[in-house]
Amino acid sequence: MKVKRVYVALAIAAAVGLGGFMAAQAGYVLKGQPTAVAVVDIQIVFESLKEKVQIEADLKSRLEQLNMDEEGQKQELQELRSDLEILAPDTPAFNEKQNALEQKAIELQTWRAFHTQKLNHERGLQVERLYRKTLDGIGRVAQQNGYEIVLFKEKPADFRGAKPEALNTLIQVRKVLWSADKLDLTDEVIQLMNNQYSNMTP
User: Fold this and answer.
1) Helix count (H) and strand count (E) of the chain?
2) Which of 27-36, 92-101, 122-131, 173-182 has the lowest mean pLDDT?
3) 148 CB contacts (<8 Å, ≥6 apart)?
4) Nearest to residue 158, comparing CAs of 167, 150, 145?
5) 3-class SS string, 59-93
6) Which pTM value belongs to this model?
7) Domain residue extents for the chain
8) 16-20, 63-67, 188-192 — which is least confidently predicted?
9) Rounded mean pLDDT of 41-51?
10) 15, 31, 55, 128: most buried by Cβ count inside 10 Å?
């Protein structure tokens, strides 16, 4: 009877141990369940956004106006040079006109540098703002489709013309080596953002 009791106790202990092991494994499997991953070609998204096209058009218009204003100031410089050519050197009138010419040239250079930097700064702010909006759009599309992570989809590798010593680096920096077409959310992101922009545009 004692032997049988020992066997029963061992059997119960083994069952409990096995049950605990299986429960632990189940918990491990549950925690390690696959993550839904998608990809987006953000370069194509940027190139296809209506808002980006409008931003570039506005910046181009401002640059053209800047060039027109600069041409007007350059014309003033040319007039000062023409006036200087008809004056006798080393005279008060010549010296005064030369000082005015030099001052105008410095003012034009400073003016151009200031407005160019201002325009470039504005371009950077616009791109950053649009990039953040794009990330938000990607997040919304991903959530709507049940994806938890979105990776940067690169264009197909093209190593033609690359220097041999650079090939290893070009290979190592690639982020996504392959992805199924059904995981590509690029077109959906473009449609969402363009529809949103069209609805906001009067």
Assistant:
1) 6, 2
2) 27-36
3) 35, 36, 37, 142
4) 167
5) HHHHHHHHHHHHHHHHHHHHHHHHHHHCCCCCCHH
6) 0.70
7) 1-33, 34-200
8) 16-20
9) 94
10) 55
